[in-house]
Amino acid sequence: MQRALAPDPVPDAPHLGVHDLSWGPKGAPDILHDLSFALQRDQVLAVCGPNGAGKSTLLRLIYRYLTPRLGQVLLSGVDLHALPRRETARRVAAVVQEQPTDFALTVREMVSLGRLPHRDGLSGASAHDAEIVAAALRQLDLTRFAETRFDRLSGGERQRVMIARALAQEPELLVLDEPTNHLDIRHQLELLALLRQLGLTVVLTLHDLTLAAEFADRLLVLAGGRKLAEGSPAEILTPETIAHAFNVSARIDRSGGTPRFSFHL
């Protein structure tokens, strides 16, 4: 059967465009309201805000787990919901907070699942697939675990496997929900540095404002399901915005290359 053709990208459109986006559970009020922003190719956007602000909901709309009640999510000007699902999986990869723990697969087999959107029909893995999987394992420092069962890894190791699986998809947009959870400090820094070097458009949620300020090109701050602020970290991370979003007082030390934050009730 011939594969449906995807709509053509729109010239000069932002790589990721979110327009007037709203969503809520069926029969209930919206929990995300009238959200709009644009992200250029290869930029890193950190989404910040308190618990319940709508961060994970926004990501689920971007990687098409949820369908907007109103508004659109556009990739190069094309509505993601107008794309065939396989095409979406080739272009967008997601790493969520919920990790599978009951797969009796090796790390290599888990990462190889990222190649499924690129296979036609019942075709097996190719030599090219194997090369991409091996490269993803190297990037996440997982080669030594390649033949280890996934369910025998620590939480941080499993997190790195899921990120490697996403990279094996060869996406153009990578969406990550709190990717530094379960990682020690070194692996947090290595992961965020890697995300900046990939040449991908990246949207991720982060609780750590210092990491967000250091590694993100742009910040989006949500509060109560609405956009509170958007812009560069230097523009957005002010005591006033932090107080409004998190209901705390903040002091910001800008004496170094990256701002450092202290918080007070």
UniProtKB/TrEMBL annotation:
Name of the protein: ABC transporter ATP-binding protein
Keywords noted in UniProt: ATP-binding, Nucleotide-binding
Tree of life domain: Bacteria
ABC transporter domain location: 16-249
InterPro entries per UniProt: AAA+_ATPase (IPR003593), ABC_transporter-like_ATP-bd (IPR003439), ABC_transporter-like_CS (IPR017871), P-loop_NTPase (IPR027417)
Keyword field contains Nucleus: no
Pfam families: ABC_tran (PF00005)
